[in-house]
Write a structure and sequence with these properties.
Strand content: 15-25%
CATH superfamily of the largest domain: ANL, N-terminal domain
Shape: globular
Largest sheet: 12 strands, mixed
Number of domains: 3
Number of helices: 11
Number of strands: 20
Radius of gyration: 22 Å
Helix content: 25-40%
CATH class of the largest domain: Alpha Beta
Length: 415
């Protein structure tokens, strides 16, 4: 039997979706064209009716729309002069998207980041270092404004090398560090190379985003070891949808969806059919409060397992992988997150790189690690026992592999 709170929740979501659809039909040229073929009635009678009759949105469609109507496309529900913010996606899986926001849509997303920081335990007396470039990506721009709104001292780390950021962290007595998981590990590494120790810092909280590593147990463990005594707190979002989740305080490693701002669905990556709760599938999001630049049933490409917990709609284990990242090696499905989880179990590995060779009919993987040769042999054995694949692992000198400030690009493809 469906509980009364669940019935009330679904009714509230349905009302929000119906209101959004009216706006899309009347004010959004991109969606007006997409929704025109929908059979009557024009609005959904239930959430299942919404899933059955209303179309997905894909990144490819948005890229095509922006190419046809440069530079920003037509997926907007406000006049162009109302928009005051422009950010863009990283373009790691295709052409970048430019995404616009009005003051109202930006404020709604800032409120969501305030909730992320509140759940993390950030307080007004904290001093937060934002160790990223403040470039065109959405990144931590919202987090910076959320920290200001909470009354914390917010220190921008853009335009600095890692050694300078390390000194800024210590000299300002920063208590919170915001960056990618990869960069948090690198910053701790540089501190030690400078003859310092993360223990000398006052960092009590490391908020990570931009990569799935913050939800991987082995990577979380490495982060906790790199910043002794600090709590690791994960978050995920996307430029085109905004901040989506925060680390479940009751069950770290799970991500709780900000349901006031999103209606989440999970569908089969190939068929698009809805999947029951607890199944692994592709996360689909409809934005409920970013109304000036909304997205309807947006296929994120993230593989998740959505369950209902006391905390709310939860992604169990965080982001499990990406539909477009999976490679098939000798009949075995391999995800980058699985490789990272296995490699991060070895504390001797400071960095790694994966090469996917697609020159022949049968793709092959090889891995370089910054670690002794003996560790390379152990990593190879661990990969074989877990994935049933023999993957060559080569030891390379420490410091010879690239370091990354934003999203790490540890996979290179030879086509």
């Amino acid at each position: 039997m469906v509980s009364a709170p669940a019935i009330a929740r679904d009714a509230s979501i349905l009302g929000a979706l119906r209101g959004l659809l009216v706006e899309l039909r009347d004010r959004n040229p991109f969606y007006a064209a997409k929704l025109r073929p929908i059979d009557r009635p024009p609005l959904p009678s239930s959430l299942s009716d919404f899933a059955a009759r209303f179309p997905f949105t894909t990144k490819a469609e948005l890229v095509e729309d922006q190419a046809a109507h440069p530079p920003y496309g037509t997926a907007h529900s406000e006049p162009r002069e109302r928009f005051t913010r422009c950010h863009q996606t990283s373009g790691t899986t295709g052409a970048p998207l430019r995404w616009l926001d009005t003051p109202e849509s930006w404020a709604a997303m800032t409120e969501d980041w305030v909730e992320v920081l509140r759940q993390a335990g950030v307080q007004a007396q904290d001093r937060i270092l934002f160790a990223f470039s403040f470039g065109p990506f959405l990144g931590f721009w919202l987090a910076f404004e959320a920290g200001l709104r909470m009354g914390a001292l917010c220190i921008p780390g853009g335009g600095m090398g890692t050694a300078l950021r390390a000194r800024v962290l210590l000299e300002n007595g920063c208590t919170v560090l915001c960056c990618t998981p990869t960069y948090a590990l690198h910053l701790a590494e540089v501190l030690r190379s400078e003859g310092l120790d993360p223990l000398d810092s006052q960092v009590r909280l490391v908020v990570v985003a931009g990569e799935p590593g913050g939800s991987l147990p082995a990577t979380r463990k490495r982060l906790a070891e790199a910043w002794p005594g600090a709590r690791v707190f994960d978050h995920h979002g996307m430029t085109e949808v905004g901040p989506v989740t925060y680390d479940d305080p009751r069950h770290p490693g799970n991500l709780v969806i900000l349901e006031r701002s999103f209606y989440p669905e999970v569908v089969h990556p190939e068929t698009g059919h809805p999947l029951p709760e607890g199944s692994t599938g592709e996360l689909v999001l409809t934005t409920l409060r970013r109304r000036a630049c909304p997205l309807l049933r947006y296929r994120t490409g993230d593989l998740v397992r959505l369950v209902r917990t006391p905390s709310g709609a939860t992604l169990e284990g965080g982001i499990l992988g990406r539909t477009d990242d999976m490679v098939v090696i000798r009949g075995v499905n391999v995800y980058p997150s699985a490789i990272e989880q296995l490699i991060r179990e070895f504390p001797e590995v400071s960095e790694y790189r994966v090469t996917l060779d697609q020159l022949s009919a049968l793709p092959e993987l090889s891995i370089e690690i910054e670690a002794p040769t003996s560790i390379a042999s152990l990593v190879s054995q661990r990969l074989q026992s877990t994935l049933a694949l023999r993957i060559p692992v080569e030891s390379v000198p420490v410091g010879s592999l690239p370091r990354f400030e934003l999203k790490a690009k540890r996979w290179r493809r030879i086509r």
